[in-house]
Amino acid sequence: MTNATVTTETKPQETSRETCKHFVPDMSDKRWKLVAATMKKNNYNPRSLIEVLHVVQDSFGYIDYDAMAYIARELKVPFSKVYGVVTFYHGFMSKPAGEHTLVLCTGTACYVKGNDQITDWLKERFGLDPNQTTPDNKLSFMAARCVGACGLAPVMILDGQIVGKLSVEEMKAKIEEWLSNDNQ
Fold it and tell me: DSSP class of residue 13?
């Protein structure tokens, strides 16, 4: 979204905070029109921040610094607040997602049942830390503070499907199977 005329095929470029301050979206792009209309519908109320972020996420697939700066400016909230919301909630991404997404719950119940070992294994096996995507864009790994499925601990979400009540070894096997099914 660094350029005012971004398409879904365009890869974002690195932007500086200085560039973000002056970002003006291309209002001929229907996606930006939808974002602007959502803010206007809510009278530019800062309380509409999450709704506006959902519109950007749904429209572009991610929320980059330019979009965050634009939203902060229009809703008259600090950039840090917008950034904090985007990076806190696992449903928002600041970079394009990979072909597959894995969300690992890091809540207390899941941690106690071994999800920290899965985090370590993902680092070892794929070179991924939380909130990173493999260089081939096949897998994005995100950590969530809690996904609200504590009764199924340990829990992970594979492409939107909740998987739980597995041992650490079963979880590793499930991830490997899930990724290998893509190659068949």
Answer: P
CA angle at residue 96 from 66 to 122, to 5 degrees? 130
Domain residue ranges in the chain? 17-88, 100-181
Q: How confident is the prediction along the chain (184 residues), in pLDDT tens digits per residue?
A: 543 333 333 333 444 445 456 788 888 889 999 999 999 999 999 999 999 999 999 898 889 999 999 999 999 999 999 999 998 887 788 888 888 889 999 999 999 999 999 999 999 999 998 888 888 888 889 888 888 899 999 999 999 899 999 998 998 998 988 888 865 4
20 annotated to a ligand binding site? no
pTM of the predicted model as reported, rounded to 2 decimal places? 0.63
At residue 61, what are phi and psi to the nearest 5 degrees?
Answer: 90, -10
Superfamily of the domain at 100-181: Glutaredoxin (3.40.30.10)
Strands 132-133 and 100-105: unpaired
